[in-house]
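SAMPLE LOG
Freezer: B-3
Tube label: C17
Construct: single chain, 137 aa
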Amino acid sequence: MEKAKTYALKLLAKRDYFEKELREKLRKKGFPEEDIEQTIVYLKNEKLIDDRKLLERYKELSIQKGKSPASLKAKLYRKGITEVDFSYEEELESALYLLENKYRKEKNYRDVVKFLKNRGFSYSVIQEAVNKFLNGE
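STRUCTURE (predicted):
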């Protein structure tokens, strides 16, 4: 188990991992399932891995970057996380950030709607974000 734990700690020193990602890394390295399970339990007990906190950080970063919930869900799905919930307010905040900081074209309703639609935002969020953006709110 010590080798698996050492390897896991080395990986975690570089970046945070979701539990499923870490399990896969350890499996690919050839560690026995028993060692992997003991290592994961140890890391959870020491609070070195916490999927819930990491998921919240990913959500915060995606909002700050103006990413849509669809974009984040796709990224997290590849990492093995299937339960992601965005509130309407979080999605709206992300859309508004994207428009205020990234949109550089002529500000007409149709083009702004298309811009957000192509990035995966829901229609209700697009409507509100575009109205706020075009009205200067």
